[in-house]
Amino acid sequence: MEDIKETTVRDAANGDERAFQEIYLHFSTFVFSISVRMMRNHTDAEEVTQEVFVQVYKSLKKFRFQSSLKTWVYRITVNTVINYCKKYNKERSRTEGYDETMNVQGVAPEMEQKSYKEEQEFKVKKILELLSSDQRAIVILREIEGMDYREIAETLDINLNTVRSRLKRAREKMMQYVKKGVI
Predict the structure, then answer these.
(1) Which residue, 34, 62, 92, sits at the end of a domain?
(2) Last residue of a domain, which of 60, 92, 124?
(3) Exposure pattern of 40-59 as b/e (b: 16+ CB <10 Å)?
(4) pLDDT tens digits, residue range 51-71?
């Protein structure tokens, strides 16, 4: 994903609705994707996505181009999700049922692949649910979004060594759950 032009950001910061709409269209899917992975709930993710863009709109004049706009929006998204989780600390569990097509004879290969993929995604979501919101954010940014440690540190506004230690602890915790057969 390419970043937005600096002139567009400046125009949006000065109240140009079309420029802000361009920013919104450019990043809305990205923000929702991060939110839904962290929240594990589409309705909450939609609410968080709206809140992120309200914050982006209000804070755009403060953006200093010291990082990419994508990184800045990432940071706002992750912080908004974490704050949302803390504020509305409620247990959610997703029970996404799906047919056990793998056991049915004569299943088309594409259906078998789809079922396998859904099963793997379900397992990943279940493991992520067991992590704290800080650990979940680190794992998602590193393992799902593919960010390097420096980008994560910049996005979350934390020390590089903190990224390393949180990621290590999160991975260890995930492995414990797998070994215990929780998933």
Answers:
(1) 92
(2) 92
(3) bbeebbebbbebbbeebbee
(4) 999 999 999 998 888 888 888
Q: 70-90 pLDDT, tens per residue?
A: 889 988 998 898 888 777 654
Query: pTM value?
Result: 0.55
Q: How far is CA 121 from the centre of its chain?
A: 14
Q: Which residue has the higher pLDDT, 170 or 127?
A: 170
Work out the end-to-end distance of the chain between its first and last CA atoms, rounded to an integer number of angstroms: 33
Q: Kindly state whether residues 180 and 141 are assigned to the same domain.
A: yes
Task: Count CA atoms within 13 Å of residue 37 on its CB side.
Answer: 21
Same domain, 121 and 63: no
Measured between alpha carbons, how far is residue 99 from residues 102, 125, 146, 178 in Å? 8, 18, 31, 23
